[in-house]
Structures are given as C-alpha cells and as structure tokens.
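Re-running Diadenylate cyclase to confirm reproducibility after the cluster update. Everything else is unchanged from the original entry.
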Amino acid sequence: MREGHSYPKELVAFIFARWRDEAFVERVSPGEERGDLRLPERGVLEQVISTCYQASLLREEERPVMFRLIIRDSYLFAAQEGPPTGMHRLIFSRTRPFNEYELHRLAPAADFYRTLIGIFIDPVLGAQIWGLLHSGTRWMHAVYGGRKTSPPMPPSLVVYVTGPGQISVCIGDEIIASLNGGQINCPALDVFNSGWMRKSLSPLNDETFALHRKARQRAERPWADLDPEFGSKIGQQAIRRIISVIRNSNHGGLLVYLPAEMAEEIMEQNQYLTLKYQFLEFESRQRFLSLTLRIMNTLAEINGGAAAEGRTVGWYEYVNSKNENIALLDEAIFDVAHFIAALSAVDGAVVITKRQELLGFGGVISGDLDSVGMVAHALDTEGEQCESVLSEGVGTRHRAAYRLCQRLHQATAIVISQDESVQIVRWHNGSVTYWDQVPTGVPGF
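Result of re-run:
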C-alpha cells in the first residue's frame, strides 16, 4: 500500500506528462495567451500540491476543508474590477506563509464557491500567500446550468480542494487531472457536447421552432432570426440544473427520458414501468416547452434590429441580455428544473418525454425485464471507444436503468448516485452503454 504523501508526487508527474501534449496545451491556452502559461518547477509544484493534500486531511469544526487556490501574481489582476463581470483582488498587507495550517485557517473565509486563495512563487521562499481573489459564483453556471456569463479564469494553475484527499488541478477553467480516493483521473466527458445528445433533444427544438415560426408570422414588427440550435441549448442547460440539484441533495435519483409518442402508453399499464404518481395532461405538464417558446419569441422580438442586418441571434444574446422579461423567464425555467429535481427524492424514476413534458414520478421499472450482464463504458463523448464491463457492483437504480435501456432502445436514463457520481445510459451501437458525466474531485464538474 502506497503512503498517502506519494499521491501528490504522482499527481504532479501526471500533470507534467499532460504538458508534453501540445494539442492539450493549445486547447487550454490558445493563440496569444499561450506565452502566459508556464508550469512552476516540478519541485515547487510538488510542494504546492503536497501542502494542499495535507490541508485537505485537516478538519474545520468537523467539516471537510474546502478551498480554491490560484498560482498567479497579484499584479496581474486589475485593482478596480470585481464580480459579477471580473475578479476582485484583495492583497494582504504582508504575505503569509504557505503551509497546511495557514490554508486551514483561511479556508472558512475563502468560501469555495466565491473566493480563491492567491499565491505566488518567490524565488527564495517558494510559494507564498498574497491575498484573496473574489470571483463570485457565476463560474458555476457553465456546469450547473444557467445563462449568466462569468469572467474567464486566467490561464494559470488553479487547485481545487473539496475533501480529504480530493484535489483537482486546472489550467484556468480546464481540468488537467483529479485525485480522489488515491486514484488519478483525467477530466470526465461532457456528454452534453455530443452529437447524439443534441439529436436526443431535437424533438423539443423542432417543436418549439415550428411554434416560433407561426408566432413570428403574426408579429407586427420584424423579429430576428434565431440560431437553429437555440432551443436545444435551453433544454441542455435545464437538464444540467436538474442533475446538479439532485447531486447536491445527497439522496440520488433517476431520470428517464422517453420518446414523446410513448406518453400515452406509459401512463397506462405497460411492460416497461409503473408510474405511481402521474400528472394529468394539462398545460402545466408542458410548462417547460411553453417557457422555452416564450424565451425564443421574446429574444427574437427584442433583437428585431438584427433582422435588418441579416444576423441570427442565439445563446450569446440570451446570456448577455439585460431585458427584464428574459430574466424572469430564465428564472421561471430553472424553477421548473428545481421542482423536477425535488421529485426525485421519492423512490423511483422521474419520467419525462424528450420534449420535456413531465409525466410523473415514483416510476418503478419492471423487474420482469431481462437483466444485463455486461455493459459498455464509453470512453469518449460519441461512444466510439468503449470498454466492456460487468454490471455487478452497481446500485438498484443503475441496474434498473440498464434493464430499461436494453428493452426500450429509444430511452435515455440519467442515474445520480448518493456519492454524487452521474451516469448517462442509453442503447448505443448494439449494447447498453453508459457515460460517466462528472469528473472526480470538483463539485458539479
């Protein structure tokens, strides 16, 4: 059994190995920013990671120590900026020593979700703490779902400590590697960037665009043309928010997405699942679709001037909009996402159609469906590279999702475990396939 203090050294070795991958470095720091991006000397980085590791093993009033840390000189941050559109730099009157005890003392003040501890590398003393960097919480929207933009993290090393022995190292917003439970992991896949996920959300996108076109024909003033993928992006962000709320609840859950044409069949006695709590077919069951349509119509209307310029509008205009109606609709759509997430607290699956119509909750997948012995673990977003694994050792939710997707090839299941891991399951290339959505070590990533 390896000693715990060897893990930081192995993590640093992994980071330097990735640094030899020119394609990776170009992705995390493209173009002119690349010259700003340098790793500390190996010994210095080992000191930083080892100190963070030791701090993670301490306790703060029986709570795990959590903090974010950035290795970047304080003068590289503007003094006059601050959240939500910038970083708020606060420099200590004198530098503080960089050790696990100082990190332990600072962690409660440096709230994980809002503030980073700033350090620089002194040529004689090594790592030193220069102060705090207030980032605000918008950086979480890209993961949890949301339209608010966040100031980009500069191309510097950022270390996340989220619990005992749980460390992730990033370049800016891009994760290089995570250490959790003695295992070093590469960043997990963001399945929402896959082509098959976009195709899965296309029924909602197609329907809302058809309704949007009818509305714009009745408009008295010109409306801007919308990006054809805009509706899918709204749906994607809502699913992210549902997943994140369930993860943070620590009780786990199961979401099942079915083809829209199966809604009536699932509400009756069927061979796939029994839905204990069903919702009647009223407008309220389709609130997500109606809100998406209202967002599309409002965005096209308030950007009507783009029509004369021949421009299309979409996600960029949405996230940067200061329009009060857009803000209210954005809040409403994520209130629906929180409501759906809360339903997962009841045993069983929350069942939704792929046009985001909420059918009900407490769904019990039939035990008569054949069990699944082997499943494919996707190693890339499109599932072109997979490894076969035994389905043993997973929980009841996972096994139920595997059985359903083996029998009902059009279904997509999202399984959120109590340990906050997330699997997305579907029938793919002739077998039940799952994707691990959440990287280890950083909450919500």
